[in-house]
Structures are given as C-alpha cells and as structure tokens.
Design brief:
The chain has one domain: 2-enoyl-CoA Hydratase, Chain A, domain 1. It is about 45% helix and about 20% strand. It contains 10 helices and 10 strands. Strands 1-2-3-5-7-10 form a 6-stranded mixed β-sheet, sandwiched between helices. β2, α1 and β3 form a beta-alpha-beta unit. It is globular, with a radius of gyration of 16 Å.
Length: about 200
C-alpha cells in the first residue's frame, strides 16, 4: 500500500489505498517513516497518492485504537523536514487530518484544482501533532492556522494557494510531470548544493 520508486537521486513515494481514501494504518505510517529516514541519501523526495484523495489521515479503526495520537506522525514529519534534499508533496487530491503533517514538512506543495484541505482535530477530540501548528503558522500565519485547526474549515485549492499553504495548482494529468520538472535542477546539481541552499533559506 506504500509504493517506492527510485530513479537515481529521485525517490517517489505513493500512498496506494484509494478504496479507503488513502487512509493510513500503523504499518503504513511506520513504512512511510522508514522511507523518509532512508531518503537522506536521495536528492529529491516526492510524496503523492493514487486516486482522488492524497490521504484522509489515520484509518478510522486504527485511530480509535490510538493511531491518531501515535508518535509515528511526528517521526514521519520530522524525517521529511530533516531531509537535506528537496521534498515535494504532489497532492493528487484532498489532504486531511494527521496526513497534513508530512505535507507541511515538505519544502514545496503542489495540488490538483479540486483538492481540499482540512484538519478536524478538535471535532474528533484530538490535539494536532506537536509540530504541525508551527509549520502551518509559518506558511499561512496564525489567524488562518486557527481557522483550519480551531474553526475546522475546509479550504479549497485556490484558497490554499492564496494563503500560502500550497505553492502551485496543477492539472491532475500533469501533476507528477510538474513535480519532476521542479526537481530537475536539484537532481542535476551537486548533492550538497540542495542542503546548503536549504540552510541559507532558513
């Protein structure tokens, strides 16, 4: 249910559970974290999904069993944030709940026009993962972060683009092509350049 394609320095990770809105079980989440930690040797990591939803977050049964508050979410987002290379979330559809953490941790986020973004933690009786609000605030500011996290609002792709939550809206057919095109300069450069530029940007 988690697919990994390695093409030289380009690693593409695909969540493949479209019949369940790409919701994540504990085993899937752990596999994603393992891949993200190993991806320190990649120059570019692209995260995407199959179907119309990038990920609905925790699988409902797994969430009830404790996955919603598992440290695996922080392990995954922390590993993505720590990558020396370029990380791109190529969002093939709606992004919800805890799955937002891995996208927030990426360097760039591109999304299809019909994608929606929401993080209904208060409604479900959970707190967000510790690093997610900080990363969200860095992108959209405190008021809009509260609109999503406390107001439970579902944000459209156009709103997300205007807020700074995503960086580009891309036709679904061209989504991965655009992600690879963005990755091209990083892949062509010396491997240590990406880490140096990231450090300069921060």
């Amino acid at each position: 249910m988690i697919e990994l394609d390695k093409d030289g320095g380009l690693w593409t990770v695909t969540i493949n559970r479209p019949d369940k809105a790409n919701s994540l079980t504990a085993a899937m989440l752990e596999e994603l974290a393992d891949i993200a930690e190993a991806a320190r040797e990649a120059q570019v990591l692209i995260l995407t999904g199959r179907g119309k939803v990038f990920s609905a977050g925790a699988d409902l049964e797994a969430a009830r069993a404790g996955l919603a508050t598992s440290p695996l979410w922080e392990r995954l987002s922390g590993a993505v944030a720590a990558l020396p290379g370029l990380s791109i979330a190529a969002l093939n559809g709606t992004l919800a709940g805890g799955a937002m953490g891995m996208a927030l941790a990426c360097d760039l986020r591109i999304a299809v026009p019909d994608a929606k973004f929401f993080y209904p933690v208060m409604k479900l009786g959970f707190l967000p993962q510790p690093s997610d609000p900080k990363r969200m605030v860095a992108l959209v500011g405190p008021a809009r972060a509260k609109l999503i996290l406390m107001g439970g609002q579902k944000i459209t792709a156009e709103e997300a683009l205007s807020y700074g939550l995503i960086d580009r809206v891309v036709d679904s057919v061209a989504l991965l092509d655009v992600a690879r095109a963005i990755a091209a300069d990083t892949l062509a450069a010396k491997p240590d350049f990406a880490g140096t530029i990231k450090a300069m940007c921060h």
